[in-house]
Each structure stands twice: as structure tokens, then as C-alpha cells.
Amino acid sequence: MVRFNGRHFTVFDRQNTPGAELSGVFCILAEADGGVLFGTAADGVFRYHHGRWQHLGEPAARRLPVSALLRDTDGGLWIASANRLLRMDVHGRVHDVGADAGLPGVRINALARSGDGALLVAADTGAYRLQGGRALPWAADWAGTNAVRGIAGDGADGWLLATDDGVYWRDAGGKVEHLQAGRRVEAVLRDAVGAIWMSLSSGDLLRHAGDGDERLTITGPVSPALLADREGLIWSGSTDGLHRVAEVAAVGFTRKDGLGSDYVRVVLQSEDRTLWIGHADGLDRWHQQRMHPVRLGDGGGRDPSVLALAWRDDMLWAGTYDKGVFRLDAQGRVQERIRLGSHGEPIVRALLADPDGGLWIGGTHGLSHYRNGQLQLRLDSRGQPTAVVHALYRDGDGTLWIGTTGGMAALRPDGTLRTWNAEDDIPAQYVFDFLRDPGGDLWIASDRGLLRMREGGFRVYDHRHGLPRDKLFRIIDDQAGNLWLPSNIGVFRIARKELDQIDAGTRRQLAVHVIDHSDGMPGSQGNGASMPAGWRASNGALAFPTSAGLGLIDPRIAGRYDGKAPPVVFESVSVDGVQQTLADRLRLEPGARRLAVDYTALSFRAPDKIRYRYRLHGFDGDWVEAGAGTEAVYTNLTPGHHRLEVQAMALPLDWSRQAEVGTAVMELDVVPPLWKRTSSRVLAGLALAAAVVLGFWLRTASYRRSQRRLGRVIAARTEELSDKNRALELAGIERDRLLQQLEHQATHDVLTGLPNRRAAELHLRQALERAGDRGEPLCVALIDIDHFKQINDRHGHHSGDRVLREVAELLRLQLDGDQFVSRHGGEEFLAVLRGVTLEQALERLQALRLALARQRMDEIAPGLVVTASIGVAECGPGQESPRTLLAAADRQLYRAKREGRNRVCGL
Prior knowledge:
Layout: E1 2-4, E2 9-11, E3 25-30, E4 36-40, E5 45-49, E6 52-55, E7 68-71, E8 77-81, E9 84-88, E10 94-96, H1 97-101, E11 108-113, E12 119-123, E13 126-131, E14 134-138, H2 140-143, E15 148-153, E16 159-163, E17 166-170, E18 176-179, E19 185-190, E20 196-200, E21 204-209, E22 212-217, E23 222-228, E24 234-238, E25 241-245, E26 250-253, E27 264-269, E28 275-279, E29 282-287, E30 290-294, E31 306-312, E32 315-320, E33 325-328, E34 334-338, E35 348-353, E36 359-363, E37 366-371, E38 374-379, E39 389-394, E40 400-404, E41 407-411, E42 417-421, E43 431-436, E44 442-446, E45 449-454, E46 457-461, E47 476-477, E48 482-487, E49 490-495, H3 496-504, E50 513-515, E51 535-536, E52 542-546, E53 549-553, E54 568-575, E55 578-580, E56 585-588, E57 594-601, E58 610-617, E59 624-627, E60 631-635, E61 640-650, E62 662-670, H4 678-701, H5 703-747, H6 757-774, E63 778-785, H7 788-795, H8 797-814, E64 820-825, E65 828-834, H9 838-854, E66 868-874, H10 882-898, E67 904-906
Parallel strand pairs: 56-62, 66-67
Antiparallel strand pairs: 1-2, 3-4, 4-5, 5-6, 7-8, 8-9, 9-10, 11-12, 12-13, 13-14, 15-16, 16-17, 17-18, 19-20, 20-21, 21-22, 23-24, 24-25, 26-53, 27-28, 28-29, 29-30, 31-32, 32-33, 33-34, 35-36, 36-37, 37-38, 39-40, 40-41, 41-42, 43-44, 44-45, 45-46, 47-48, 48-49, 49-50, 51-52, 52-53, 54-55, ...
């Protein structure tokens, strides 16, 4: 048996649960007190409650095969065991009730309770009703005598029977509907929205609703395991495992749907409702529920990557990575190609078509205007920005807004140009999109968050206001009061009114709803620096390019299941590493040093979107924000009564909405040591008083003698304590020195004094996380000494060690400041360059290589010249983890060696 909490499975079997023969579990029954019953293949019934397992019943009951369970109102337990209906009383004694009631000796498949308290029995010869000690056929007049596999209420006083001849549904009014006639149905249920789910022996899971039947294929032979949970999810079991069916807010187009590439860059819908999709391998056209490839090249080669799209007057303009701009008709046929350069085509990232037939083209060349076959460069070096153009937006008054890698600009209808330089005039570096608000505000998507431009000033909404990531690629208004903002970790939905509340000071944090891979998106990483990086379709759906396909979001479904408080449970408690029995109240004995409590929220729809906080009342001054963490750890708790409270909430996060917050509480009693207890203190006080009285009596008898003796004792004890204190101080100093030495040896290379590979891996992980959070560039370089083995062979290993130390010292000098250098192994070194682009890294590493080649090493060996090959890679798509980034740098290192060594290669 396994327990699933939405994040991971916990196995319970005879190997890790002594006395629990759980290898064959045929049925599970949840009880009102939180306990769970398990019916097994041949070992009776087990009960799990508060972390404890109990084998129910008398010895004979512990060897029964169990296929169905139902708890009676008086505490008794109905048990379907092969061909018998048994009842276990509260004392564990088992009675064969079915035989006494006249129930046929056939296999029993399911049990249910009718509204009047009668027991309903599903058997291989039909359904039966047991009441008053007699079993009579039931439902034969409307469901026949087919084998009944399952019984379920329809939630409205009606009944559903899963039989070998389909499903029979009788509503409260007596109307009977026969579904899937002639097909064997293993299980049936009706969900909260009225749809009927049927698990068929053929391996199909069917959904029957007013809009028809929907078929879902379940791999492996199905089982009677079928469940609808409180979140609206449907769970189905088969021999291949557990299957979850969920209504999702997003779907996607990928290669499986005919898309030419999963790396989608742009999307646009034309007036005929055709969806145009630009990707890394060209252009596709979704028309009349089919995907059609659109060829841009005139040969059989690969089409260029499409990074920009624009539509006007039944014409599509497509901007490419290295082939200029193409004009196509509504059927996707190329009509014209615009070449932008005579010595290689620039990258086109933005297009905007004007009503007069003109076309604005933005990219690595700046901004051009094309009309009637004439191409004119509009942003050149004459005091105007030359940065890469990412976005173009035509305002209602005719102003052309231009987003670049160095800020933004506005071209007025009269031809005047106004620029906002990055950092100086606008609080952002990259500008990716614009949207004019009906109220006059201009919204700007940037690498520093969402900007609102009002009356010439800027208001920034970023991670400080609750944005999960600052870099945003697009702004789409869903016409329902929300802005949708794609990022590289999902699509954010923000209510406009919350932005106004932030400005008014009535709100501190935005409640950001994130749509990502867990909601059905093909990928969470959105693509930007291309135009348009998102589109609102005519039916209201939102399309967003991602690195794993085209995501399609239904705004009506997104957030439909928000607002429900997830139940929070404690999963385990350990004291000083020893597991404790779960209970509502925990007692910590004196001497307990470390308390660890694992908790989780039972949210199965999107467990990755649950956030936690906890507080130990009586110890913590405020809530501890745990994020996605599921463990609370405390050390050296003060004696007394404490109350641990854990809260959980699904994103978007707003703890003030307490109706949506799940809570669990555990009471803790920390027992004080004996000497801190009140009774001990009273006894100590009495003993002290008695000692004072006795001392006074003795003192009056021999005052002078005691005084001299006391003086000698005090002097001796003082000297003894002084000696011990000095010894302890020396021991403490020596221990600290040894600990510092051991800590340094654990993380540093003995020969060069540089951090070792272990320290480097930790630093690289932290640097990648920091770079991702701040949006900073990061490069990794591998530096390998050329022909080091020949140095060792010719001049000896001692000389080789001196060379390694010299190179290490040079690396320290050349790569100072905020950079990190370590010995990666052998003659190889690793450098982590934070805040440095690939171009900057290549420049610095080239200087390092030249400095090493010029380094004189005659003291090691006359005429010795040492060179190095260097491979460098920059963090980016496909190179975001330590493993992939190091692998990329290693490939560049081998490239440097292949090309002749003593060089720097980068990617």
C-alpha cells in the first residue's frame, strides 16, 4: 500500500511496517475519525490511525480475503469476503450474516448504504437489499440480473449501477438511463458537475455529460479503483499505476500536433481566425483544426527561425533570424522577400504594419521603414539609439513606441524622436512590450518588472510587490479586468485593481496567479525578445510561445478552483532524530534538543503551487515564511506549553484571505528539567533554610575555627578553579584552531590553496540561483594547462606542482573582485564569472591566456613556457543548471584543444 500526499509516495508493506501484511490491498475505506481501513487479499482488515497500525478482529478474521468494506452506524463493520457477507462487531467477532439472511453464495463486489439505512450489495447475480435480517433482490426491475461490479449514489437520491451490461442510472424520479450497453463496466461515479465517469474493462475511461461522451485511454488493464476528490479531480487505477484526470486551464500545440518545432517564438491570429506560429524551424499555420507547414525557403533546406509577425490587409509579414522579412498571402504563399543587408541579414525581432502599406522593421540593425520597395533606416548613429529593437507599438495618437535593449523611444507623427535611456531615464534595461490603458497610462513589460508610465513618471511593480520573476515579455488585457504577463517561469495573471491598490497604499503585495506546466502548459519557460510574444484570440483564449510548444490558456478556467483552503496534515514528528507517534498533543521530555515536524497540504491539483508558513506560539514572535518547504525545525525549546500552527495556501498568495488558508495545529508540552520545576524549587528553598539555621548554630559554637578552615578551603578551591579555567581556555583555543583548519582543508586544494571541486559545485549552484533571481549574466570557464603531462615527464612532478601553484596565483590576480576560481581537478581550473556576459568573459579570459603565456618560469625550468586552453559558456536556455553549463564549457574546452590549444573558445 502506498500513501500519496500530492508530492511523493510513501510505501507501507511488511518490510517497513512490522506485522502489516499489506502486499495485496483490494479495498480502502476512510472513516469519520481520520482512520483508514484496508481490506487485504488474505489477511483480513488493517486500520491505520495517527501513525499506528492495527490488525482487526479475532484470529480467524485475520485470515480472510476482503473485497469490500462498509462501516455500520453502530460501529460494526460489513465485510465482503469472497462469496460471503460477514459482519465484525465492535469486539472483533465475525458473523456470517449473508448466509443467515438468504444471500446467494456468489462473489460480492461492492457495498453501499441506502438512504433508509438498508445495506445494498453488488454481486455477480445482481444487486440485493439487506434489511431486518433478510436479503431481497434489488433493482432487478430496472437493471436486470446482470453481474453488478459497483454501486454509487448520483448525489441527488438516485443510483448508478456498474454492470456487465453497461451502466444503469435511475434518478430520484424513477427515470432509468442505460449507458454503454453490452460493455462491462468495472466502476462508476458522478462528479460534482454532474458528469458520469465509467471505468471499462476494455481499458477506457469514459466521461458522459450533456455534451456527449469523452473517451480517455488508460494504459494497462483497469481496476475498480475510481474516485472523485474534493478538488474535482478524477483518479483511476490500472495495473500500470495511478492516473489523474483534471480539467486544466491550459493546453498546447507541440510536435505531436504537427508543429514544426517545440521552440515557439511568436504567435498571431489573422482576421480569418487562422493562427500563425513562428518557431525555431520556420512557420506553421493552424487553420480549420489542422496544422499546415508554411515554407519560406525556395529550396529543400531548413527554413529560418521566425522571430516576428505582423498582419495587415490579408497579408502576413514574417521577420526571420537571418533571411530578412517575408510577405505572405492568407494561404501562406510567399509573395515578396525584403533583404535588409548586403553583407548578411540582421536578426529581425519586431514588425509593425501601417494602414498606408508601410512596414516598420526592428532588430539588431536598429529600426527601418519599408514602403513601395524602398527601405529607409530610421534609427541610426546620428545621436539616436542603435540598440537592438525588441518591440513596436502604435499608440492611438499615432505615436510609435520602440522598445530596445537600451531603454525605449517614441517617434511622434511629426517625426520628432524622444528617447529614454536605460537606468538614467527609465528604471529598466530591456523593454519588451507596450500597452496603452484606456485611462491614458502606458504599461511597459521590461526586464525589471511591469512599469506604469503616467504623466512622464514611472511606477515599478516587481518582486518586491509579489511578482515571482521580474523579466516580462508581453502584456495582454483579457477584457475581464486582468493583465496577463508571460515570463520564463510561467504566465502571470494580475488583476488591474490590485495594481491601483498598490499605488493607493491599501495593498502591499499582488496576488499573482501563475499558469505553468502544472496547469497544462507545454512548458513554463516563455519566449521573449520577439514580437508578438503572446496573442488574445477571437474566442478569448490566450496564446503564448514557450520553449516546449505553444501554450493556449482559457482565462475562464484559470483560477476556477482557486479559493479552496487546502487541508493541512502533519506527516511525521521526530525528536533528536527519533520518530514519534503522531498525536494532537506532543510531550517533550527534559533534555530534548531538536524537534522536527514534517507537514503537507493535501492539494493534488497543483501541489507545486502551495506555499506554507508556520509559527510556534509562545516561542516565535511572528510567522516563519517557509515558501514551498514542508519542515519546521526547532532547537532548545523553552519549557512550558507551546502551540505549533501551520498554514498553507495555494498561489496566488495573500494570507489576509483566511477563508482560503488551510491550518493544522499541534499542542506541545516541553517538560522542564527537575531543577527548574516548582516543586524542586520549593524543596531547595526549604533545604536552604534548614542549612542556614544549622550553619548559624554551628557558627556560634566554633566561629574562629570554622573561619580559618573556611579561608584555607576557599584559597585552595580558588587556585584549583583558576587552573581548570586556564586549561579550558587553552583547550578551547586549540579546538577552534583545529576546526578552522579542518573546515579549510575540506573545501580547499592543499597544493594551490584554491577552493576545491566540492566548494566549486556549491558556489556554482548558488551563483546560478542568484543570477536567475536578479536576471544577471553568468559565465563559467574551464582552464586546462596545455601539455602538462610533458612538463611532469621532462621536469619532474615537483616542477609540475610548482607550475600549478604559479598558474593558481596568476588566476587569483587576473580574476579578482567578485569572481570565483577553483581547482577543478588535475591540471584543470574552474572560473565562475558573475555579472559578466559572454563577450566580456572572452575578453578577460583572452587577457588571462596572454598573461600566462608571457609568464616567465625559468626558476622552475630554464626556457619553460606554459600555455592554457580555455572553454567558456554562458548561462542561458539549455545551459541553466550546473551540469548543463559545465558540460557546455567542457565542450568549448575540447574545441580549443582540437583547434590547436593556447586559445579561448566560448558559446
